[in-house]
Amino acid sequence: MGSEPRPPAVAGQFYAATGAALAHQVEECFLSARGPESLPLRHRSATRGIRAAVVPHAGYEYSGPIAALAYAEIAVQRPPESVLVLGVDHHGAGRGPALSDVAWTTPLGPTAIDTDLRRALTRAPLEIDEPAHALEHSIEVQLPFLEYVLPRPRFVPLQVPYDSFAALEQVALIVREAVRGRDTLLLASTDLSHYVSPATAKRLDRLAIECILARDARGLYETVATNRISMCGIAPTTVLLAALAEEPLSARLLGWGHSGEARPMEDVVGYAALLLETSPGASSPVK
Predict the structure, then answer these.
(1) Average model confidence (pLDDT) across the chain
(2) Inter-residue contact 192 to 271 (CB < 8 Å)
């Protein structure tokens, strides 16, 4: 079991480096015209219909308002006992699906590990691999939002490298068994198309989003491969969909956007925020 907390790897790059500046930046994401356009209400319902969310992980200037669409919904429902964040292995640093067993820190403070959930997940090929997480941002950038909308959240980070669909199904089975009966919110951290024109991003991202809305893990995996969609988080998103395939959930698109909306650029990165919830919701079009 680890001891020293994991320090932030991308504070001052993907998000602000000090607590006060970061809290302000998170609030700006909620207030943005590309986001919810208001801060989360400070009262909650007694229930929670949200089981999972798909959220982006770029710099807050670019994807933060889109991510805030999901976190605004999470903020007004009963908080979960723990959060499982499925992230990307951008650096190829992991030996396989990598867990962490130490608290993670951001300028807003530490986020503790849910040790019971981590133990339930520690089955081959999943293993504790702290070095695999050292430089990775896809899980880290979710923590300031979680720290803002949840009271003292506990979480488990699971970095999922790209692999065959059969291998990802194996990971999903472990996740399914680990979260069965647990009050756990699942997050899949992913951006969508990378460095293409806005029109191309809209066309390709719609294909991926339609598969997520259909809760079709294999369809998503094959659609991304067939159409060469540069969706960096295809592995964690596939695992999330496959892990929850047997639960009676509906998927809802909260919003889609791209980096060119934040700053003029010819080639953009696409982002979307989606929920999987026990109560049905109408899906919004990609505008």
Answers:
(1) 95
(2) yes
Residue 39 burial class via C-beta count within 10 angstroms: exposed 0-12, middle 13-18, buried 19 and up: middle
For residues 4 and 284, give the distance between their C-alpha atoms in angstroms, rounded to a whole number: 43
Angle subtended at Cα 148 by Cα 85 and Cα 240, rounded to the nearest 5 degrees? 20
Categorize the per-residue pLDDT at 282 as very low, low, confident or very high, splitting at 50, 70 and 90: very low
Within a domain: 9:
no
Parent domain of 184: 19-40+49-277
In total, how many domains does the chain have? 1
Encoded amino acid at 184, one letter = T
Of residues 270, 276, 217, the one with CA closest to residue 250: 276
What are the beta bridge partners of residue 276?
52, 251
Tell me the pLDDT band of 279, cut-offs 50, 70 and 90. Answer: low
pLDDT tens for each residue of 42-68:
778 888 999 999 999 999 999 999 999
Tell me, what DSSP letter sits at residue 95? S
The CATH number of whichever domain residue 136 belongs to comes to 3.40.830.10
> CA nearest 109: which of 26, 43, 23?
23
